[in-house]
Known about the structure:
By secondary structure, this protein is of the alpha+beta class. The chain folds into 3 domains: about 15-85, no CATH class; about 95-175, GMP Synthetase, Chain A, domain 3 (2-Layer Sandwich); about 180-285, Rieske Iron-sulfur Protein (3-layer Sandwich), CATH 2.102.10.10. Helices cover about 30% and strands about 25% of the residues. It has helices at about 15-25, 30-60, 65-75, 75-85, 95-100, 105-110, 140-155; strands spanning about 115-120, 125-130, 160-165, 175, 190, 200-205, 210-215, 220-225, 240, 245, 250-255, 270-275, 280-285. The strands form 4 sheets. The chain has a 4-stranded mixed sheet with strand order 1-2-3-4. It is elongated, with a radius of gyration of 26 Å.
Amino acid sequence: MDGSDHTVEERDLNGLLSDLSALEALAENWPVDQKNAAHARGEAIDALNAAAFRRLIRSLQSVPGMSAALREAAGDEVVYAVLRRHGILKPSLFERIDQALEDIRPTLASHGGDVELVSVEDTAVVVKFLGACDGCPASALTFYGGVKKAIQDKFPHITEIRQAKGLGGGEGVEYASPFANFQKEGWTQALALEAIGDGQTEIVEIDGESVLLTRLADKVTCFKNACAHMGMAMDGGEIAERIITCPYHGFQYSLESGECLTAPEVQLQPHGVRVKDGQIEVRLTR
Length: 286
């Protein structure tokens, strides 16, 4: 060692990726045989690096206490990106859910909008609409028919999906699956079960939110009192054979499932509901 300073300035992930993109752009105009040769060389280097990383990690994992250090190191954005590139680390749940949203982003983009995945915590997800989708009157349709379906088709264990307010100040829309009904806290007494006749519906206000309660024998359903079309209240809607019709634009919904019979890809927003000691209790999804 000659004692000279060999300190190398650390660069962030964006800077390093920018360099890679610039190098890839240089090769775009190369002859096909040169491009193929460069690509093959890159793949060979990737394979060599991946094999080296795997052997290094296997060796370090045998050292007491080193597994925790490796997990901490993987928290560095550059280390994580490289290990992900080589398939050594699996994508996080956040990344996988965000990838699932790619299925609907082209449709949103065609209308000048987008959706951002804000957070993932246990079984709860928060998303936010951007651009033209934020505050759009039809955002409820997009939420239920697009976002909710895209996520829950691939991740059925997600039991709560919430829409955060964006710049447009649109009202947050939430979805809670029936499994959320088994939560122990957050219940508010609405009214006695006997106050609703079988097959009848009552509009009740719970903590400032209007909800639609329907009794079906010993079962009770609860939905937000808002049509999924434009958010209009369902008060005064005609009810026949357990189907309610929006009094404004005629959208029809099953009072058993909340499914929209006019546009089957959407539904009324459900809330948790239960009957306890003869009292109907509601758990709002916030």
